[in-house]
Automatic annotation (TrEMBL):
The keyword Iron-sulfur applies. Transmembrane segments: none annotated. Its cofactor is Fe cation. One of its GO terms (molecular function) is dioxygenase activity. SUPFAM superfamilies: Bet v1-like, ISP domain. The keyword Metal-binding applies. Residues 60-168 form the Rieske domain. The lineage of its organism: Bacteria, Pseudomonadati, Pseudomonadota, Alphaproteobacteria, Sphingomonadales. Keywords: 2Fe-2S, Dioxygenase, Iron, Iron-sulfur, Metal-binding, Oxidoreductase. This is Aromatic ring-hydroxylating dioxygenase subunit alpha.
Length: 451
């Protein structure tokens, strides 16, 4: 195990309240090549084009949640670069199609669309398909004797689901999703998100390459300097960083525990009273910390009680970190999944259209489905680079301000990459090891296809 910040580790903090489940007790951070990583990977158009062709057309990628396409006729449009996928719920289940009419190529549904449709109809000349993609009809069909109506079906894209999430893959020869997920199904065996739904969905347009934007969320080396108010109540430099396989890595961050960079001397009651980083709607009033217990234990107990009373969800067997900590899994290339009930999120990073210098960041906040089954899936709220996350009424104000801090720095980073005389970045051995691993996997995809 490589060197890391001195003092208590995440595991030390987590074990104060009991044993860790096996899946969180694992530590895996193998040695890596410590060479610098060139900025051309972010700024060069040829590299961006190679990503679009050799990565995005080959990987399984998160497209939407199952609740977006829960009923027959529900659809969701997923875009990546110039590619667009129409995901449909038919009577026989989910299917996904290239979002392009077989007549003149018109998009069948506009980018970002989500809703319900009795069939699939082109808005230009009214060619129609059934929900399963089979051909339904066209105006003036006598004008097209060359079209075999029995086989004029929409071209399919691979689609599959896992843990309430819908994934697509453009490669018809790609291995099954369950294989691509590697260790995730086993790690998430007790973290079932199928009974949760999207309560808030915010998309922000960002002034940086999609990798630049994502990597800001793959380390906490910046936290004491970008988020100084968090250091008293959130671990950062003592986070645990694990690399498991080609597609999966994670970081584990303790809530209600001071950073090793903090100079504050806080009691457990102070930590509980100051604890702000969580989904505010999932955390109630702060009681007193019993003697011999920790603020973390109190928060976990409080959340277990709330989950049981309000949602009939029994978390009595879940450890304290499983309830309240930031357990952030990264699935290559661009999605992060946080399964803990106290901070249940999905974050997604994509190129903004086909612009190498801009990206979009989607944050999905998940809540448990109510007992009565009545809930409304949040529509996406889109904000520009200049707008603050705090302008989104549905977002927790403190979490929104933290995201502002994360994203406000990105334009400076992008401009600095272009201005650099060095032409490369030097990553830390441990805290930024997952970024280095990500680039290694990226190279494998680009190199494999090129060879």
């Amino acid at each position: 195990m490589r060197d890391r910040y001195p003092g208590n580790t995440w595991a030390d903090v987590a074990r104060r309240d009991g044993d860790l489940p096996d899946v969180l007790a694992i530590q895996s951070n193998p040695d890596q090549d410590l060479s610098d990583i060139g900025f051309a990977r972010y700024t060069d158009q040829a590299f961006f084009d190679a990503e679009m062709e050799r990565v995005w057309k080959r990987v399984w990628q998160f497209a939407c949640r199952e609740e977006h396409v829960a009923e027959t006729g529900d659809f969701f449009v997923y875009d990546i670069g110039r590619q667009s996928v129409l995901i449909m719920r038919g009577e026989d289940g989910l299917k996904a199609f290239y979002n392009s009419c077989l007549h003149r190529g018109t998009k069948l549904k506009p980018s970002g669309a989500c809703g319900w449709s009795a069939d699939i109809t082109c808005p230009f000349h009214n060619w129609q398909w059934k929900l399963d993609g089979s051909f339904k009809g066209m105006p003036c069909d006598f004008e097209f004797p060359q079209v075999d109506k029995a086989t004029a079906n929409l071209v399919e894209v691979q689609v599959d689901t896992w843990n309430g999430m819908v994934f697509v893959n453009f490669d018809p020869a790609a291995k099954p999703l369950v294989d691509y997920l590697e260790v995730l199904p086993e790690h998430f065996r007790n973290w079932d998100l199928t009974g949760w739904y999207v309560a808030t969905h915010v998309r922000k347009h960002l002034p940086g390459n999609w990798k630049l934007s994502m990597e800001a969320f793959m380390e906490a080396y910046h936290t004491p300097y970008v988020h100084p108010e968090m250091t008293n109540v959130v671990g950062d430099h003592n986070m645990q960083h694990d690399v498991f396989s080609k597609h999966v890595s994670r970081d584990l961050c303790a809530m209600a525990s001071s950073s090793p960079t903090s100079t504050a001397q806080l009691s457990e009651q102070d930590l509980l009273d100051m604890m702000l980083v969580a989904d505010g709607k999932m955390v109630g009033e702060r009681p007193r910390v019993p003697e011999g217990k920790t603020a973390r234990w109190v928060m976990a107990e409080q959340l277990r009680e709330q989950m049981l009373q309000q949602y009939d969800l029994d978390y009595s067997q879940h450890s304290v970190p499983e309830m309240i900590d930031s357990l952030k899994y990264h699935l290559f290339p661009n999605v992060m999944i946080y399964p803990a009930p106290g901070l249940c999120l999905i974050q997604q990073f994509r190129p903004d259209g086909h612009d190498r210098d801009r990206s979009t960041f989607d944050q999905y906040v998940l809540h448990p489905k109510p007992r009565d089954g009545n809930f409304e899936v949040a529509e996406v709220e889109v904000i520009t680079e200049e707008q603050s996350f705090t302008s989104v009424a549905s977002m927790d104000p403190f979490l929104a301000s933290v995201l502002d801090q994360d994203t406000d720095i990105m334009r400076l980073q992008r401009e600095g990459m272009y201005a650099s005389g060095k032409g490369a970045q030097t990553l830390s051995v441990y805290q930024e090891s997952r970024i280095r691993h990500f680039h290694h996997t990226l190279d494998q995809y680009i190199g494999e296809q090129a060879g």
